[in-house]
Predict the structure.
Amino acid sequence: MTAGKTSADGVGDRLLKAVSHPLRIEILRLLRDRVASPKEIAAEVGADLGDVSYHVKYLLQKGDLEIVDTAMRRGAVEHYYRLKAGPLGERAIRELVGEAVRALNAGTVESRRNTRLEWTAMALDEQGRRELGELQARWTEELERLRDAAAERLTAKSRPGKPVVAAILGFETAPGLSRGWDASGAGA
């Protein structure tokens, strides 16, 4: 394995394969908070049952879904699935990447001038990691305040809002970060 790469079974590769098809993204989104059968999923997303069943089976084999119930329906066994519980970070990234891919496919990522997508690579010590966590917590509080204030305005005007995703990530990178940073955090 070379620096910056993950194994074929690595979380990153598995995540990218899981969200590499729009129908898989929809299946993962629907099963995030509930249990459903391929038939129910197909009806909800307006897709062919055979296509949904194929992608559900793929996600099950890759370990992203689990069977939680079965029921006899007209002489056949109907399986019910849910998103498999995994590490919180993996699940959050899966959901975020799925939403990002959906937005890219819909052409809404850069539909407004004030859209921002930025990231910064840096080397942090333990104090820096603590400060990053504190900063992320404050930003989360601000996002919640923003969400609540917008909900009040929208309710007062009886208008629907536009769905928006705001993400906060802070994680240790895999070896071989190639963004022009060295271990000191200074630009290369």
In short: Strands lie at 65-73, 76-83.
